[in-house]
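Re: [ENG-882] Designed sequences occasionally contain unexpected residues at chain ends

Forwarding the minimal case from QA. Structure tokens:
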């Protein structure tokens, strides 16, 4: 059998050089000679390539193994609970990260909502009053009996709510 015929039988990406099988690293693309005990080796020994190999394995494992995924989630949750101020410190020491994140968040908000995001208090005067049920009593009524007490429901309307209701024929349409 000729050497050309033998090479054509090799899987894609394999070469024979000085009697040894070679292939290309899947991460950096450089040639590598697989170790004899790892015949299907696809990554060279460089640190970046080994990191890429581990990341690929981890990603595949997270997608296929529910127990592994649950264990990773629990471990990360425990770490976050034991390091509650980590992100605060990271943001304080990496202002470039903070600015980039803000820019990207503004872009995401703009794509989703046309530039508007929710605000904690809609009213312009900073009134923190919320919609809900309230007890209403007469101010200065010092009596013992609470005969003049009412339970009312207040719905706080945003400042963008239409104030001119003359165009509405019935008040039920605005509540």
């Amino acid at each position: 059998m000729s050497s050309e015929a033998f090479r054509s039988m090799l899987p894609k990406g394999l070469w024979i050089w000085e009697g040894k099988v070679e292939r290309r690293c899947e991460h950096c693309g450089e040639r590598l000679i697989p170790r004899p005990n790892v015949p299907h080796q696809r990554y060279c020994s460089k640190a970046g390539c080994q990191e890429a190999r581990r990341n690929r394995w981890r990603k595949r494992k997270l997608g296929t193994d529910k127990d592994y995924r649950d264990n990773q989630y629990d471990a990360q949750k425990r770490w976050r609970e034991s390091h509650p101020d980590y992100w605060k410190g990271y943001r304080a020491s990496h202002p470039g990260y903070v600015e980039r994140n803000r820019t990207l968040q503004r872009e995401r908000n703009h794509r989703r909502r046309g530039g508007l995001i929710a605000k904690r208090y809609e009213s312009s005067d900073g009134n923190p009053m919320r919609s809900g049920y309230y007890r209403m009593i007469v101010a200065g009524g010092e009596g013992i009996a609470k005969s003049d007490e009412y339970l009312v429901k207040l719905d706080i309307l945003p400042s963008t709510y239409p104030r001119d209701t003359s165009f509405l024929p019935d008040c039920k349409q605005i509540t």
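QA comment: On inspection the terminal residues look reasonable. The chain has five helices and five strands. Proposing we downgrade this to a documentation issue.
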